[in-house]
Amino acid sequence: MSIIICPGIHEPELTENFISAWREVVVDNLSFSNPVNILIFPAESFSALSAFHILHFLHQHLGDRLKSPVIFICFSAGVVGAIAAACSWQMLGGRVKAFIAIDGWGVPLWGNFPIHRMSHDYFTHWSSKILGSGENNFYADPAVDHLEMWRSPQTVQGWRVDLSGGESPSQQRLSASEFLYQLLVRYKEN
User: Exposure winner among 32, 44, 45, 101, fewest CB in 10 A?
Assistant: First the structure.
């Protein structure tokens, strides 16, 4: 399995912080029966918006291993290019296990794979639902700065919203890193 990290348009240090916090809280606590390949798309300027560049990156690193499952974790402008790349990867025969959009406000998210949104506040969570979201999403409460979701997911507290029960969603209080952990536990062996 491969986890594809698609940053937005920001300082590279923010992605380094995300990876460090994410590895500490999420990856180090999971045991995978198969090795996990973590690939970080080197977003430079506007390439984060480019499905072509992200798809080319996937072909460079995964080659013809289309059936090897991938999970996308994307932030901000990186969500734009990554959702199109994920759909294209799947159309080419690739297997997308899940797509996790962190603060991809205003980005339509539709695909034939599970999609999860993580938002820096309730308004972003609520207003993004019309553009597509999955059954399990997260929003920060109290609200945090947009970049804080990427810089320090382990410190961002909020709510996991589970819509799989129908009209009345269930909620669980946790950190953004714990939400990512729950998602990876779900998808690690499926």
Answer: 45
